[in-house]
Amino acid sequence: MYDVIVVGARVSGSPLAMLLARKGYRVLAVDRAHFPSDTPSTHYIHQAGLSLLRTWGLLDRVVATGCPPVRHLNFTYTDIDIRGMADPSTDGIDAVYCPRRTVLDKILVDAAGEAGVEVIEGFTVTGLLRDGDRVAGIRGRVGEGPEQEFRARFTVGADGSGSTVAKEVGAQIYEGSPAACFVYYSYYEGLDWGMNHRTGFGEQQFAAWPTNDDQYLVAVMRKRDRFREFRADPDAGVQEIVDRIDPELGARLRDTGTRVEPFRPMLYPDNYRRQSFGPGWALVGDAGYHKDPFTGWGITDSFKYAQLLADLADESLSGGRSFEETLPEYQRERDAQSASTYELTLSISELTLTPYYDSVFRATSLSPDYSKKFFGLIAGLYPPEKYFGEQELAELYELVDFPAAARHVSKAEASL
To answer: Which residues cross the membrane (predicted)?
Structure first.
């Protein structure tokens, strides 16, 4: 009998399992994969996520893999150009990192094992065990082996957007919107571009950042109705998008860039929040909450809400408060803490800006001080209510002598 079973051992499941095992609980984590193992990802870890890795004692392991630090960010949206970095004095982290998932996930799985988690790789969950209406564990098998059953006081689905746990418990979506775009990405040698997140006219975007083994992840994004056309020749499609957005980088891609792995196409899931708790169970990571990869917040949010769930589950497992109290609080807090990121991501991932965001970001680009606040917002270190505060925006527009007709200090006012 386990205290906790975690289904899925990547960026949500392994941290959750590790944190609960460090608190002394008996934890089982299972995953269909064998690690190291790859999975579609932006790779990007914001400073807020890196802060958690540091707290957990794992940041040095990521740095030691040779993943290059990124200390200058280039963000453009059509003709709006914002460059810089979040103020490192906020939390002492002066770089971001974008490790390969073969590297990062292995570090997390190993850390869970070191904490005392029993990890079973290559395990496919075929169903949940129940005690009345309460989830009481899992059944499944390794490969073609015999079906096994494991029981626990608490079972967590950390098994991604296609979560088996979510399907088994009938977790319903209560907030959502369709995915707007598709992504194609691969890895290149011969590039030295720094970090770029560039959206151009014509609803197209490319992103690039360094990762392990002296390689660059290069990703492009377009609206879904262009997917069939793009997939016919993705090499030409990537080159065309980079050429149109930044001809200089396009020339460098053509002259020195060499793609070294197959393309990964991503027709990623819709944006959603699912009911993420019930009797004896909870969901964490993409199993319970997913948004467009445009802002690269998937890994960082996985870390944040694994920590949140671990803290609240500990209260119930230790007898402090019942799960009937702590699990609703987990979902409320997750939704409240992620609300601004969720809304911003959905708004700007359409590859066109609303008048409100156009005016805010355009004015930001004219102010070095507000640009730092922008990158602090993106990093998860600067409060959204201050960056988008009406008084703060009014002061920004005055400071940069912004045209009065283009000033928008609230979303509601901009929509009139």
So the answer is: none
> Is 60 exceeded by the pLDDT of residue 416?
no
pTM of the model: 0.96
- Check pLDDT > 70 for residue 414: no
* Sign of the C-alpha dihedral computed for residues 354, 351, 172 and 5 taken in this order: negative
Tokens of 283: 């969901």
Q: Write phi, then psi, for 320 (nearest 5 degrees).
A: -75, -55
| C-alpha distances out from residue 261 to 97, 235, 255, Å | 21, 12, 18
What residues does CATH 3.50.50.60 cover in the chain?
2-43+100-175+270-343
Taking 80 as the threshold, does the pLDDT of residue 49 lie above it?
Answer: yes
Residues 257-262, mean pLDDT to the nearest whole number:
98
Q: Which two tokens stand for residue 38?
A: 């790859």
Query: According to DSSP H, which parts of 208-322 are helical?
Result: 227-231, 234-245, 247-256, 298-317
Give the whole-number percent of the chain exceeding pLDDT 90.
90
Tens of pLDDT, residues 75-131: 999 999 999 998 877 678 999 999 999 999 999 999 999 999 999 999 999 999 999
Fold for domain 2-43+100-175+270-343?
A: FAD/NAD(P)-binding domain (3.50.50)
Whole-angstrom distance, CA of residue 310 vs CA of residue 318: 12
107-122 per-position pLDDT tens digit: 999 999 999 999 999 9
What are 282's two structure tokens?
A: 């909870």
Q: In what order do the strands lie in the sheet with 271-274?
A: 173-177, 271-274, 289-290
Tokens 């609703």 identify what position? 328
**Cβ pair 188, 215 in contact under 8 A:** yes
Domain 181-266 maps to which CATH number in 3.30.9.100, 3.20.20.70, 3.40.50.920, 2.10.109.10? 3.30.9.100
